[in-house]
């Protein structure tokens, strides 16, 4: 049976003979239903219209995105490491060419996804690389639209993937929102949408809903900054191609939080 994918958010649903009646992720106030209503595409049809590009985002870190842009348009990140490569965040399209190219870079040993908007075809990706584990926080279990034994729901505030990489629950955008910290060199933070790298790379921002322009609360922002305080990171990788802060990223997060909190109190 085909696996239908929501055209607006890119989430793949469990195999079915007919498209699902609704996409709960898009019906939520953090997302949206497109002006033309709910639409679906099968993975096979997506393979016929799109291709994936793999490009260096930083030494040992490869961006994986689709051309032309599909759904939200995020890119995954293949993080190379001697203990096993990690795919951070996911995209909807997976095909034989992509698998071959990633295998040449060392394959994938584990997948971790920041939040439900980027679950996309994560189960399909897992199966393509031998049913590798997918790490998702327990607090976001309800948003998984294609349940599978390869998904590992973890609980608590941190979860080690290896001696060098740790998942951190920061909440905010979603209750189980997680970021990935790598301790190599000056440290790297893989953040997806939160903190969100801005067009001006001197800043990040904090949002509850991006398409509907709903800001995150001051309480949540303070908690996020406090949670990240114990981790060192010079670089920060956001959700989209080139959205990277290459130096002093932790200071950027601190300064940005201060500016954001001030903006909430200023009358304009």
Structure class: alpha+beta
CATH superfamily: Ribonuclease Z/Hydroxyacylglutathione hydrolase-like
Q: If you average the pLDDT, what whole number results?
A: 97
CATH architecture: 4-Layer Sandwich
Mind describing the biggest β-sheet? 7 strands, mixed
DSSP strand tally: 19
CATH class: Alpha Beta
Q: In terms of per-residue confidence, which ranges show pLDDT below 50 for 5 or more consecutive residues?
A: none
CATH topology: Metallo-beta-lactamase, Chain A
Summarize the structure.
The protein is of the alpha+beta class and 268 residues long. It has one domain (4-265): 4-Layer Sandwich (Metallo-beta-lactamase, Chain A), CATH 3.60.15.
Observed structural traits:
Metallo-beta-lactamase, Chain A, seven-stranded mixed sheet, alpha+beta, six-stranded mixed sheet, 19 strands, 6 helices, 268 residues
Describe the fold and architecture:
This protein has 268 residues and is α+β, with helices and mostly antiparallel strands. It has a single domain, classed as Ribonuclease Z/Hydroxyacylglutathione hydrolase-like (Metallo-beta-lactamase, Chain A, 4-Layer Sandwich), CATH 3.60.15. Helix content is 21%, strand content 28%. It has six helices and 19 strands. The chain has helices spanning 24-27, 43-49, 96-104, 122-128, 218-228, 249-265; strands spanning 4-6, 40-42, 51-58, 61-67, 76-79, 86-88, 110-112, 134-137, 151-154, 158-162, 165-169, 178-182, 188-192, 196-197, 204-205, 207-209, 214-215, 235-238, 244-245. The chain has a seven-stranded mixed beta sheet. Strands 10-11-12-13-18-19 form a six-stranded mixed beta sheet, with no helix packed on it. Strands 1-2 form a two-stranded antiparallel ribbon. α4 (122-128) links the parallel β7 and β8 (134-137). α5 (218-228) packs antiparallel against α6 (249-265). The radius of gyration is 18 Å and the shape is globular. The protein starts with a strand and ends with a helix. The relative contact order is 0.13. The mean pLDDT is 97.
């Amino acid at each position: 049976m085909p696996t239908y994918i929501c055209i607006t958010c890119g989430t793949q649903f469990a195999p079915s003979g007919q498209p699902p009646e609704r996409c709960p992720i898009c019906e939520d106030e953090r997302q949206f239903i497109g002006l033309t209503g709910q639409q679906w595409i099968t993975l096979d049809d997506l393979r016929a219209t799109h291709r994936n590009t793999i490009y260096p985002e930083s030494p040992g870190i490869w961006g994986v995105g689709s051309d032309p842009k599909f759904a939200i348009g995020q890119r995954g990140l293949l993080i190379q490491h001697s203990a096993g490569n990690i795919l951070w965040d996911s995209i909807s399209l997976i095909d034989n060419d992509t698998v071959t190219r990633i295998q040449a870079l060392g394959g994938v040993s584990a997948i971790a996804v920041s939040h439900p908007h980027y679950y996309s075809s994560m189960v399909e990706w897992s199966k393509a690389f031998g049913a590798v584990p997918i790490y998702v926080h327990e607090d976001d279990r309800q948003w998984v639209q294609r349940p599978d034994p390869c998904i590992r729901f973890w609980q608590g505030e941190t979860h080690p993937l290896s001696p060098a990489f740790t998942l951190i629950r920061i909440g905010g955008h979603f209750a189980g929102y997680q970021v990935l910290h790598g301790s190599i060199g000056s440290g790297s933070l893989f953040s997806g949408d939160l903190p969100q790298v801005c067009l001006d790379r001197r800043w990040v921002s904090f949002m509850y809903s991006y398409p509907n322009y709903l800001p995150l609360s001051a309480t949540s922002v303070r908690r996020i900054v406090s949670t990240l305080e114990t981790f060192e990171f010079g670089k920060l990788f956001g959700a989209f191609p080139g959205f990277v802060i290459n130096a002093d990223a932790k200071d950027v997060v601190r300064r940005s939080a201060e500016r954001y909190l001030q903006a909430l109190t200023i009358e304009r």
